[in-house]
Amino acid sequence: MSTAAPILLTPGPLTTSARTRQAMMVDWGSWDDRFNQLTASLCEQLLAIVDGAASHHCVPLQGSGTFAVEAAIGTLVPRDGKVLVLINGAYGKRLAKICQVLGRDFSTFETAEDEPTTAADVDRLLQADAAITHVALIHCETSTGILNPLPEIAQVVAGHGKRLIIDAMSSFGALPIDARQVPFDALIAASGKCLEGVPGMGFVFARKEALAAAAGNSHSLAMDLHDQHSYMVKTGQWRFTPPTHVVAALHEALLQYTEEGGLPARHQRYADNCQALLDGMTQLGLRSFLPEAIQAPIIVTFHAPKDPRYQFKEFYERVKAKGFILYPGKLTQVETFRVGCIGHVDPAGMRAAVQAIAEVLREMEVLDI
Ligand SMILES: Cc1ncc(COP(=O)(O)O)c(C=O)c1O
User: Fold this and answer.
1) Closest by alpha carbon to 116, among 153, 84, 82?
2) Is the CB–ligand 1 distance for residue 89 below 6 Å?
């Protein structure tokens, strides 16, 4: 992998391979049989990643990740349902906002941004409120990179006879999730994350019985996953104009995913990227926000240097000029910046990024690290 081209060290859009970008050089008609086969093959491959073919349908949806999250909640939570939203960062807060906007009753449970929600918390909360029908969880909270204990929480939710909705936007494809062992009604992810496609479509793995029972729940025509799925089953086509180039790119990205060795290989590369990043930044004296035990190998939050000569905007521009795009922090209490470990990049690329960061901090005379 070349480090000469600019590398996006951001959690999506992210760096894609030339092969994936090349796949977008074809114009597809939405009625074209071959395009419909591409969609069907995509859904089949996506479901296989979670071993979900027997239990779940894959419903693709046009738009960014949030569109798919909103569609999942709007479709699968009945209008008289109640959602317990587990929050330890900005994307958890967004889940609550979605429930509020859609008029679904909800309660929230919020822990600090460096504190995972525990299964014991969920157990206690479900015991205390029998009205809760669904629990919504962010698997990897991308605003910090914290990993929440999905399998344990899923067991507790199922033990209470409740439904689980998982936003696995930044973890799906890299962190293992097995639908045969982790019960869920919906798992949501998108094209432009760990599968290394381009942004433009999300997808929801919806439990077959839950989707079948969801007719009429949705507040919205375009966001109705039950309708989207029924139409696709009937016609083989997307209900409304499909993101053809995004689908083609994701299909090509999935071929490369398989060639690389599927999820274990993708996970290993990202873990190696994350380790190379942490090792290099530690040597520079930069501290990561999360302890390693709860750090997902997706994105790392670093404390910003305290030196007044450090300004994120200048730091960002200078690192960008050296070929790497960083990400601002998303914490309100402490000043941070983030570096993604995902995308078409390897540990050598991460070491080159650390080298660029070191040079920039020297140029800016930021010395207190
Ligand atoms: C955990 C999580 N949920 C939801 C989203 C929202 O996705 P989008 O910005 O594509 O709408 C993201 C985006 O990075 C995410 O990381």
Assistant:
1) 153
2) no
